[in-house]
Each structure stands twice: as C-alpha cells, then as structure tokens.
Automatic annotation (TrEMBL):
Domain Luciferase-like: 28-382
The organism's place on the tree of life at top rank: Bacteria
Keyword Aminoacyl-tRNA synthetase: no
NCBIfam families the UniProt entry points to: FMN_nitrolo (TIGR03860)
Molecular-function annotations in GO: monooxygenase activity; oxidoreductase activity, acting on paired donors, with incorporation or reduction of molecular oxygen
Gene3D superfamilies in the cross-refs: Luciferase-like domain
One Pfam family hit: Bac_luciferase
Keyword entries, A-Z: Flavoprotein, FMN, Monooxygenase, Oxidoreductase
Coiled coil: none
TM stretches of this protein: none
Name of the molecule in the record: Monooxygenase
Length: 447
C-alpha cells in the first residue's frame, strides 16, 4: 500500500500513550489486563504500529504518589523502568517511534545520553526523549542529592543537560567520540562509547505548559504535548507557540503539537454517550472523588458521603502537601472552591457528580467511528494539532477498536497514511515529518 493524500489537506497523525494504573485507566474493568507485564506493552505497541501510529509513549514517575502520608493505591502503584521497556519493544516492532520520559534533574548527561543513543541504535532510529524537569524534595528523597535544585533553575539545568547530551551524540560525526563540555551545571569530558545513531539526536519531546516550559519547547523541542485539544483553546495555544518559535528563530513547522485525547466509540452516537458516562463513573469512584476533593480542601474528608453535598467549611490553604508527587494545577484553592460551590448549587451536584465534571479530561471524542474520524480531521485542518496522542481507559486493548474502526475511516477520507514513510524502515523523524537532525556545528541555536 502507498500513502494517499487528499489534495492539499493536512494529514492526521496519531500516537499512543500507555497509561498504566492511574485516574484515567479503569483498572478494575474485566477487560483490563496487567499494567506491568511485558505482554501488555507489546500488545499496545503492536496495535499502534498496525494502525500506522507515529509513536508509542511511556511516561515515568520517580516516586510513588502519596496521599495523606500513604501510598495512593488508587493511582500509579508500580511500573517497570522505562528505558528497559522501550528497548524490549524495539525488538518486537519495526516502525513505530519509542518515546520515554526521562528527568533532567535526577539523571546525569553521560548515562542518559548513552541509554538513549543505545535505544536509537537498537531500534534503527526510533527513539524519543520526553524531557521533564522537577525540583521538589519529595522526589529528591529517592536520590543522593535530595531536593538540591532551586525551582528557578530547573529549566536552566534542563537546557544545559540537553546541550551536554547533544555534545556527546555528535562527538562521532567528525571525531572519535572525544568530548568536553562545561556549563553552569556540568563539567564533563571523556569519550562517548556509542557511535553516531540513525537520528544522531533522539526526537525531543516537551510537556511543560508554563511560560518557561513553552519557551523551552520553542527553543529546543521537536514535539510538545498539550492539554489544549478543544478548537478555540488549541488555536490560542498554537498562536502563542508560533510567536515563541519566531522569537527563537524557528518556523511553526519545526515544533509539532500533540494534545492528549481519549476516544469513546459505539455504533450510534447515543450508545457512545451512554458508554462515556459509564466510563466516567468507573474512573471516579466514591473514594476517588473524596481523595480528589481532599487535594483542594487540604483536609481529611473521609467522613463525607461522596453522594452527598460539598463540605460546608472552607479549605485549609496551608496544607497543599496533602497529596505529594502529583502536579498541582489548582494554584488558588479558594477560587476553585468558590467556582465549584456555584457549579454544584446550579446543577444540584453531589461530590462525586461534581468531580466527574470538573476532572473530565476535556479532550474526549465521543461518537461513532465516522464521527470521531471527522473530528480528528476537522481539528487537524484547523491547525489545532499536528497529531493526537491517544489515552485509552483500558490497557492494553484500548487501541484495538480505534485501529480497526477509526483508522479506516480516516484512510477513506484520504487524510491518513496507509503505510509508514519509505515503506517502513524509516526513523521517528520520518514518521513525524520532521527534517533530519542538523548538528550544532551547522546551526545556531538561540540561547
């Protein structure tokens, strides 16, 4: 089969996120399998590859989340080490990109550069690094230097880290692997042991949504993950990034935008909506709703009925650490509580009903395969996204229906490929439509 192209229409791109056990995955569903056995990773990645997805993405946390001083067993409670899983998947797939999250605070350039170069070489040029930063002492307690990094320095270290890694990856292009790199955070020299890989540098992903994160992505990244999947919100995000890219001396097409999105399918729109409401109830259990509320209230609310009203008292604004290890999006709990009270009163919501609404992932497409394909196509043509990273609620079989039912609809529209670039055997950069990596000796990267 060959690629089809419907005139000048933009092509839809899909990718897959293996969610593991968390507040997205309905882990208690009978259809849910293991989240740590290699067979689950293999099934998920092979299915995505069968659907000509761009990449398989595996997140990673460096410490188990805690709630009220205990491991929060309704959330992530275990996952094998990411690089090992990706290396294993390189052996059972041929075309799909292999993206993993690796932290620039609690790793060192030499070790991580060697790991990623090895994956890129083993996979024939399919490696990607989702570069994340952190400075919190909670995660740091697992490491020798603890919470040593000031929050203001996390992107400074990340930039130095990536610069150092690229120095190592490029060291064999015109030399024998000898390297020397010195910056505010690193002073290293030696010989890099992995010869130049197919991509030279793995594709760089970034997911920060702060101003600092967007600036970093505009300067350094090839792909940015986004929470902005709705049309208007996504257009504003795109416009903001385009302005930052121009300032950084880069073009809009140099940075691909991939919002996270979920899909609920059925044979009719009505059945799909019913299924969506059922999934949301499964995702937000009674205890889960109370725990979600406690993160904002900063108080123990276990005595409350999840099917009853919101607490009558105000939140404890000084107890923001009731949940540790999760990004806190509610920066002003007082304002959040006020908004939630107004919503609960207007719609007569119980605690659980409120949490189901306010914790909704936003980016969920609900409908028949044809309707979902049409929405993917529409968002792509509007430049809301360059691709979509699918986050299913069932692991590992949550992609099966999408590949079997939605992908053919997209292909019939002429907006989705019917083979990988170059008939397979290409790199992840090829999958994404990115140019080959240009060594820094041939380019100027803005500071």
């Amino acid at each position: 089969m060959t690629d089809q192209n419907n005139g000048d229409k933009r092509q839809v791109h899909l990718a897959a996120h293996f969610p593991g056990v968390n507040n997205t995955t309905v882990w208690a569903d009978p259809a849910s399998g293991s989240h740590i056995d290699f067979s689950s990773f293999e099934h998920f990645a092979r299915t995505a590859e069968r659907g000509f997805f761009d990449f398989f993405f595996l997140a990673e946390g460096l410490r188990l989340r805690e709630h009220k001083g205990q491991i929060f067993d309704q959330d992530v409670v275990g996952r094998p080490e990411t690089a090992t899983v990706l290396a294993g998947l390189a052996a059972v797939t041929e075309n799909i990109g292999l993206a993993g999250t690796f932290n620039s605070t609690f790793n060192e350039p030499y070790d991580l550069a060697r790991t990623l170069a090895t994956i890129d070489r083993l996979s024939g040029g399919r490696a990607a690094w989702n570069l994340v930063t952190t400075h919190n002492a909670f995660t740091g307690e697992n490491f020798r230097r603890g919470g040593f990094l000031d929050g203001a320095d996390r992107y400074h270290r990340a930039s130095d880290f990536l610069d150092a890694a690229r120095t190592l990856w490029e060291s064999h292009i015109e030399g024998d692997g000898q390297f020397s790199y010195s910056s505010d955070f690193f002073d290293i020299s030696g010989t890099f042991p992995v010869p130049t890989t197919p991509q030279v540098s793995p594709v760089i992903f970034q997911a920060g949504d702060s101003g600092e994160g967007r600036d970093f992505a505009a300067r350094q990244a090839d792909v940015i993950f986004s929470r902005h999947s709705e049309a208007e919100d996504g257009r504003k995000f795109r416009q903001d990034l385009d302005a930052r890219l121009e300032k950084a001396g880069r073009r809009p097409e140099d940075l691909k935008i991939y919002p996270a999105i979920s899909v609920i399918l059925s044979d009719s729109a009505e059945e799909a909506q019913e299924r969506y409401e059922e999934v949301r109830r499964q995702q937000v259990s009674g205890p889960g709703a109370i725990a979600f509320l406690e993160q904002v209230w900063g108080a123990d609310l276990t005595d409350l009925d999840p099917d009853g009203p919101l607490p009558s008292f105000d939140p404890d604004l000084g107890n923001a650490d009731i949940t540790r290890g999760r990004v806190r999006h509610e920066k002003d709990p007082g304002a959040v509580v006020k908004k939630w009270r107004e919503l609960a009163e207007a719609k007569n919501y119980s605690i659980r009903e409120l949490v189901i609404e306010v914790s909704g992932r936003g980016g969920t497409l609900v409908g028949t395969p044809s309707q979902v394909a049409e929405k993917f196509d529409d968002l792509t043509q509007q430049r809301v996204a360059d691709g979509f990273i699918l986050v299913p609620h069932i692991t590992p079989g949550g992609l099966d229906d999408i590949v079997d039912k939605v992908v053919p609809e997209l292909q019939d529209r002429g907006v989705y490929r019917t083979s990988y670039p170059d008939s397979g055997g290409g790199t992840l950069r090829d999958n994404l439509g990115l140019p080959s990596y240009t060594p820094r000796t041939l380019q100027e990267i803005p500071a």
